[in-house]
Amino acid sequence: MSGRLAWALAVVALFLLAPAACGKRGSAAPAGTEAGMAPSSVRPVDFALRGCPGAIEGPPCAIVRAGGKILVFGAPEGIAGSLEELGIASPDGVFLFSLHGSGIEGLMRLRNTTWQAGRDSRLGLVGPDGTEDLAKALESALSRSDAIIWTKTPPPGGFDIAPLAPRDVPPGQGARVFDTGDLTVSAVPAGASQIAFNVGYDGRVLHLSPCDPSGSRAVAADRHVGCSGESADLAWPLPQDDIVLNGG
Question: Between residues 161 and 56, which one has the greater pLDDT?
């Protein structure tokens, strides 16, 4: 067994053994209470940024709506509950800032709940170097339980849909990792074993960064989200929802 795969299996063991109540639940208000942005007010032409109301505080976590798509950034414990709370059955992509345990503890449940909700394609997963090994180990750990659970009743999306579709971003490099024509996501180097993301839509750019002493704030963007104390427009955990661009 390679060293990287052994490391990934160890991380998966953390998923399986960590208590569901790990960490303090976030105090972010339900969508629409502070910023007046109820789910029904977000239209496909808007570029909207939401916090993760059901996730634990601490790890960066955001849900972005734009171009009729829903993207998740960060996968801490409780992210699947955050999507359920916002009435979202399944995102169009998941992006990891790092492979630190606290930022990926919710990945297993996110994979399972979106599959059970009837996702009809594999769930795209982008993260730092090692993400592909992590996904491979996670699928290996869950394949037997998947078969047992769905033996009698097939999942709505089919048996072959659950596996994640992972992609590594090489260390110290940037790359376009998501592109629908109008909505794009680019990875940006952000310190050791971390990456930040630029989300572009309709001429606007949203920069989402983990705690990054190297100063990824220098990236040109219309809105910067980072850690408290850094030069950012908004800080983690997001206290309220934010519309980056009102489509008119």
Answer: 56
Strand order from edge to edge, sheet including 93-95: 164-169, 123-128, 93-95, 69-73, 62-66, 47-50, 242-245
**Least confident residue range of 183-187, 211-215, 238-242:** 211-215
- Helix or strand or coil: residue 184? strand
Can you tell me which residue has the tokens 């769930």? 123
CB-CB neighbours of 222 under 10 Å: 14
Domains of the chain: 36-245 (3.60.15.10)
pLDDT at residue 7 tops 60: no
Calpha distance 225→65 (Å, rounded): 15
Sequence-ordered list of residues with C-beta below 8 angstroms from that of 73, at least 6 positions apart, any chain: 60, 61, 62, 63, 64, 94, 95, 97, 197, 208
The closest of 36, 1, 103 to 240, measured between CA atoms, is 36
Strand pairing report for 195-201 and 183-189: antiparallel
Q: What are 242's strand-pairing partners?
A: 49
Token couple for 15 = 């998923």
pTM of the complete model beyond 0.85: no
Indicate the pLDDT class of residue 54, thresholds 50, 70 and 90: confident
Token representation of residue 92: 């169009």
- In the chain, alpha helices (H): 3-17, 79-85, 107-116, 131-149
| CA dist., res. 31 & res. 152, Å (int) | 37
